[in-house]
Amino acid sequence: MSYTKYFDEIVKIQDRIKQYIHETPIDYSKTFSDMIGAQIYLKLENLQKTGSFKVRGAFSKLTNLAEEERKKGVIAVSAGNHAQGVAYAAKVLGIKATIVMPETAPISKYQATKSYGAQVILYGQFLHESMKKAEEIIREEGSILVHPYGDLDVILGQGTLGLELLPYNPDIVVVPIGGGGLISGISIALKAKNPKTKIIGVQSSASPSLKVSKDLHRLVEIEPSFSIADGILVKSPSEITFNIIDELVDDIVLVDDEEIANAIVYLLERNKTLVEGAAAASLAALLSGKIQVTYSHKVIPVLSGGNIDLSMLSRIIDKMLFKNKRIVKVKVIVPDKPGYLNKVLSRVAQIRGNVIDVVHDRTSSDVKPGYTKIYVMFEVPSGDALSDFMYNLALDGIEAKLVE
Question: Which residue ranges does the record assign to the Tryptophan synthase beta chain-like PALP domain (predicted)?
Answer without folding.
Answer: 18-303
